[in-house]
Write a structure and sequence with these properties.
This is Protein HGH1 homolog. Residues 281-332 form the Protein HGH1 C-terminal domain. It comes from Triticum aestivum (Wheat). With 345 residues, the chain is mainly alpha-helical. The chain has a domain at 228-339. It has helices at residues 2-11, 17-30, 34-41, 44-56, 62-74, 78-86, 89-100, 105-118, 122-129, 139-150, 164-171, 175-182, 188-193, 201-214, 218-226, 229-237, 248-251, 256-259, 272-286, 289-297, 300-310, 314-342. The protein is elongated, with a radius of gyration of 24 Å.
Length: 345
C-alpha cells in the first residue's frame, strides 16, 4: 500500500492530463477518511507541493477542483496548514480564485474553504493580510470582501463565497487584521456590515463576529466606528431589540434606520451566538465616553431594556446585564447632566 500511495502521488505530476486527473480523484477520495488523511500526511513533503502545482496549473479543470478539495481536507490539520502556508498556498489560492473562480464556481468555493483553514494559523493570517509589504498589504482582504459583498444569494447552496465570513472572523482576531478592516479609506467594515441583512446564517454570524472583534480596537478607533454609526447601530441593536413594536415616543428618540425597523413586528434572531456577539460589541463601544454618548443618542438603553424582557438565554442575559451595570455606573449620570444643561435657566 505504501508503494502504491507513493506512486499515486507521483502521478499527480504526470505529463498526461488524464493521468493527473485520475490520480487527483483518488487522492481526494483518500482525504475523505482518517486513514487516508494519515497516510497522506506522512508523505506531506511530496503530496502538498504536488497538489499545489496541480491546483495552480492552467487548464487543470476538474483535476484542479479535486486538488483543491484534497487541500481543504488536509489543511484541517493545523501542522499541515502551516506547512501549506510556507509553500505559498495562500497566494496560490488567491491567484487561482481571481483567474479561474468565475469560470469554476465549485473551485472558488473550495478555495475559500481552504483559506478558512489556512487562516486558523497565525502564519496564514499574516500571509493573507500580506503583512510586511506596505504596497500590497490588505489587497487580498479587499478582494475577498468585494467577492463576499457582491455574491450574496438567497439559496445557501449557491452561495459560493459565504465562507468568506469565517475568514473575516479569523483575520479580525489579530490587530493587523482589524486595522485593515477599519481603515476609513478602504471602507471594508462598512461593506461587511451591509451583509448582516443576508438571510444566510453563516454570513450573519460571520459579520457579527467580525464587528465584535473590530470593537476590541474601540479605545483607539472609536471615531472610525462612530463614523459608520448609521450602519453599525442597526447591525448591533436590531438583533437584541426583541420582537415588540416600539412606541412612538421611543422611536422619536431614534435615528430613522432604527425607528423604521422597530415600528413593526420582526422575526427574532434565533441564533444566541449572534445576539451575544452584538452585545459584546456594544459593551466595548459604551466603555468609551464618545461611544456611550452615541449610544444614548440613539436611545440604545431603551432598546436593550425591551430586548432583555424577551431574552431567555442565560448567557445572553448576562451580556445585557453587563452593559446595564456599565450604563448605571456611568451613562445615566451623564444623561442626567446633559438633560440638566438643556433645561432653560
Amino acid at each position: 500500500m505504501a508503494d502504491e500511495l507513493d506512486e499515486l502521488i507521483e502521478f499527480l505530476s504526470n505529463g498526461s492530463p488524464q493521468v493527473r486527473g485520475a490520480a487527483a480523484d483518488i487522492v481526494r477520495g483518500l482525504t475523505g477518511d482518517s486513514d487516508g488523511l494519515r497516510s497522506l500526511a506522512a508523505r506531506a513533503d511530496r503530496a502538498l507541493p504536488a497538489l499545489l502545482r496541480l491546483l495552480a496549473s492552467v487548464g487543470a479543470g476538474c483535476a484542479g477542483e479535486a486538488a483543491a478539495d484534497s487541500l481543504v481536507n488536509l489543511s484541517q490539520d493545523g501542522d499541515l496548514a502551516a506547512r501549506l502556508v510556507v509553500l505559498g498556498a495562500v497566494a496560490a489560492a488567491m491567484d487561482v480564485m481571481v483567474k479561474r473562480g468565475g469560470e469554476q464556481p465549485k473551485l472558488a468555493r473550495s478555495l475559500v474553504m481552504l483559506l478558512v483553514n489556512l487562516t486558523q494559523v497565525e502564519s496564514g493570517i499574516s500571509a493573507l493580510l500580506q503583512v510586511g509589504d506596505e504596497k500590497v498589504q490588505g489587497l487580498y482582504v479587499a478582494k475577498l470582501v468585494r467577492s463576499f459583498c457582491r455574491s450574496s444569494c438567497d439559496s445557501e447552496d449557491e452561495d459560493i463565497f459565504e465562507h468568506i465570513a469565517s475568514i473575516l472572523v479569523n483575520i479580525s482576531k489579530v490587530e493587523a487584521g482589524r486595522r485593515i478592516l477599519m481603515e476609513p479609506k478602504r471602507g471594508l467594515l462598512k461593506q461587511i456590515i451591509g451583509q448582516f441583512d443576508s438571510t444566510n446564517q453563516l454570513r450573519k454570524k460571520g459579520v457579527a463576529g467580525t464587528i465584535r472583534n473590530c470593537c476590541f480596537e474601540a479605545d483607539t478607533q472609536i471615531q472610525n466606528l462612530l463614523s459608520i454609526a448609521e450602519y453599525l447601530w442597526p447591525a448591533l441593536l436590531l438583533p437584541v431589540a426583541g420582537k415588540k413594536i416600539y412606541s412612538e415616543e421611543d422611536r422619536s428618540k431614534m435615528p430613522p434606520e432604527l425607528a423604521n425597523a422597530l415600528s413593526h413586528e420582526r422575526e427574532a434572531v434565533d441564533d444566541s451566538e449572534i445576539r451575544e456577539r452584538a452585545l459584546e460589541a456594544i459593551y466595548m463601544i459604551v466603555m468609551q465616553d464618545d461611544g456611550r454618548k452615541a449610544f444614548w443618542s440613539v436611545n440604545g438603553p431603551r432598546i436593550l431594556q425591551v430586548g432583555y424582557e424577551d431574552e431567555e438565554d442565560l448567557k445572553v442575559m448576562g451580556a445585557y446585564e453587563l452593559i446595564g451595570s456599565l450604563l448605571v455606573g456611568k451613562g445615566e449620570i451623564e444623561q442626567d447632566q446633559e438633560q440638566g444643561e438643556d433645561k432653560p435657566q
